[in-house]
Amino acid sequence: MPVNPIRTRRWKSLALTVSAVLVGFTAPVVASSPAAATTTAYDATYYKNAIGKTGTSLKSSLHTIISSQSKISYSAVWDALKVADQDPNNTSNVLLLYSGASRSKSLNGGDVGDWNREHTWAKSHGDFGEVTGPGTDLHHLRACDVTINSTRGNLDFDNGGSTVTNGGGSTVDSDSFAPRAADRGDVARMILYMAVRYEGDDGFADLEPNEKVGNGSNPYMGKLAVLKAWNEADPPSAFEERRNQVIYDTYQHNRNPFIDHPEWVEAIW
To answer: For 136-147, how does the pLDDT look when each residue is reduced to its tens digit (9 = 90+)?
Structure first.
């Protein structure tokens, strides 16, 4: 698998962290500090028409860039997830969203103990189902335990709730779901990818984040403020970056820009 491009990240909280270490104390996490500029090997090529833009101009440019993609069938998603979600410590397994569990690739299906295909942007939010396009877009589809996937259902994302059994620290209440801390940024960046990719100009609904829970069948997903905070608190991991590269190189040939440039979340919203 290709090696991810060398990238540099600087966070505004870096100076605080360094000064605290020098005096022997641990600095507090400043989750509200936006990421500073990120550079990637794709900035001069793939993202060249987006660099330097903000707001609606940036969102529009990214929509044009990432809408150029190859699409796969829903049945093909099974095998794609076995590659994209592969456990780096056990190539026979996939890492499951929300729980962080490692499970055999062969245990895909619909029974208890299996893993299945989780739509992070719930397919009822915009009524796109499993149709080729948003229903099969790998940038928001993840391997997930069947039972935990059912628990999440089509709930919006928000903080709070009761602990999900075997959920790795995920929580749920009557109108929202919160992934375990290690997956919160991943979920935020997947949701916001969908909001940029699907703008209502290709026969599908215009997907948008909002500040509500209980969005039901409307083409909205909340809560935006919470998703933005999750993006800041949980920056892209090596697993997430590798997954983005696999989807780009092997399957859809488009990228999730918020994995490459997490600071673009704040620049748009």
So the answer is: 999 999 999 999
Give me the sign of the Cα torsion angle 94, 96, 101, 107: negative
Alpha-carbon span 65 to 59, nearest angstrom:
10
Give the domain range for residue 235.
Answer: 39-268
Say what the pTM is: 0.87
CA 22 – CA 72 distance, rounded (Å):
51
Give how far the C-alpha of residue 14 lies from the chain's centroid of Cα atoms, to the nearest Å.
Answer: 24
Long-range contacts at 159-166 (CB < 8 A, ≥ 24 apart): 159/226, 164/98, 166/99, 166/101
CA–CA distances in Å: residue 135 to residues 25, 95, 194: 48, 21, 11
> What does the pLDDT look like over 11-43, one tens digit per residue?
333 333 333 333 333 333 333 444 567 899 999
Burial class (CB in 10 A: 0-12, 13-18, 19+), 19: exposed
Q: Are residues 141 and 31 in the same domain?
A: no
- Neighbouring CB atoms inside 10 A of 263's CB total 17
At residue 35, the pLDDT reads 54
Same domain, yes or no: 51 and 146: yes
Q: Are 121 and 191 spatial neighbours (Cβ–Cβ below 8 Å)? A: yes
